[in-house]
Amino acid sequence: MKRDFVKFPLHVIFHPFDGFWDMKYERKGKVRVVLTILALLILTLILQKQFSGFLVNFYDPRDLNSLNDIIYTLLPFFLFCVANWSITTLMEGEGKFKEIVMATGYALLPLILLNLPMTFISRIMVSEETAFYYMMNSFAGIWFIYLLFVGIMTVHQYTASKTVITMILTVIAMGIFVFLGTLAISLGAQIWYFIYDIYRELIFRT
């Protein structure tokens, strides 16, 4: 249990090639660990918006909504996983959907390990030190992208160039899914209002 939640995730982010290989072929990754990482990431984003120092926090407290933080974290995560699975299925990728979810989830860990402590450190920073805050946030983002790249490359057994192409196509697929989803919701709303208007018309005439 301790290895699942502490030792192996740290092994993945510090030794990504070995870690993702073990995750795929030694079955050392756990979905429950990924769900825990997602929950911690959501908590990190909420705390970051609410408790960051005023020098780096530009959010209006009146506009904060934890439900939106949950949606805007989980939706892109699973949208990326579905889009990547869809693209790699057509490009002879060896990764299963579960492996894509786990690789993406483990890659998120640096965003928690760096951004969460920086949230509270920012409360005691002076203006000259805010550059360090932004540098650490940027480093966390770069670390995440690197881990995601290695994870996708490993689970699908791609070359680096094919992984780059796959990632670009995944982002495009995500955009297409969002467009189709928005279109479907808009069309569904119009159909609903049309039926509702007909219903009201029939009620008022009887």
Automatic annotation (TrEMBL):
Pfam family of the protein (one): Yip1
Annotated TM spans: 33-51, 71-91, 103-126, 132-155, 167-195
Keyword Magnesium annotated: no
UniProt-listed InterPro entries: Yip1_dom
Superkingdom of origin: Bacteria
UniProt keyword terms in alphabetical order: Membrane, Transmembrane, Transmembrane helix
A GO CC annotation given for this chain: membrane
Domain Yip1, residue spans: 11-180
Localization terms from the record: Membrane
Membrane topology, as annotated: Multi-pass membrane protein
Predominant place of localization: membrane
Keyword Transmembrane attached: yes
Protein name (Swiss-Prot/TrEMBL): Yip1 domain-containing protein
